[in-house]
Amino acid sequence: EQTIVLTATDGFAMAGGKTMPLPAAALDRRRKDLNRDLRFLVRYAADPGLEAVAAGDEDVDGTKCQVVAVTFKGVESRLFVAPDGKVLKQTFAGDNPMTRAPAQMEILFSDYKEVNGRLVPHKEVVKADGQEVTTLTLESFKVDPPIDEKLFEKPAAERPPA
Predict the structure, then answer these.
(1) pLDDT (tens digit, 0 to 9) for every residue of the chain, 162 residues total?
(2) Are 21 and 11 in contact (CB under 8 A)?
(3) What CA–CA distance (Å, rounded) separates 157 from 150?
(4) In angstroms, rounded to a whole number, what is the distance separating the alpha carbons of residues 13 and 27?
């Protein structure tokens, strides 16, 4: 199990009972990933810093979709929206999650389920340069759950043995 915490000023990872600061490059990559995450984009859809521009039409597995170019906090991606409003695909220039090499990324969204009046995709197939690299399955999704603020506190540094 690994926990990654991003704050306004820094970030750290906790795993195996150890806490490590995130290097600047990893922190930047995590923030970019967050600023293009579909759930995050939906959450901040009314934010004046989010720009969405129509970018044509394109088929996704036989479904004609409207393409929307989205920029949020300087992070760009393209969303492929089906006539029923579901986002079927997202593309962006990013990093292969397995190798961290630059790649053209594609996420295919499916298995939409209603959660508190919101349609949420419960399956994501991630491709890098056309090759499937991972499949994510969402088992649960909560809207506005109570959050323990202690989760965001960085544990005290371990002292070296005397």
Answers:
(1) 788 888 878 888 888 888 888 898 888 888 888 899 998 899 899 999 999 999 999 999 999 999 999 999 999 999 999 999 999 999 999 989 888 899 999 999 999 999 888 889 999 999 999 999 999 999 988 888 888 888 777 777 554 444
(2) yes
(3) 16
(4) 10
DSSP letters along the chain, please? -EEEEE-SS-EEEEETTEEEEPPHHHHHHHHHHHHH-HHHHHHTTT-TTEEEEEEEEEEETTEEEEEEEEEETTEEEEEEE-TTS-EEEEEEEEE-TTT--EEEEEEEEEEEEEETTEEEEEEEEEEETTEEEEEEE-----SS----GGGGSPPPPPPPP-
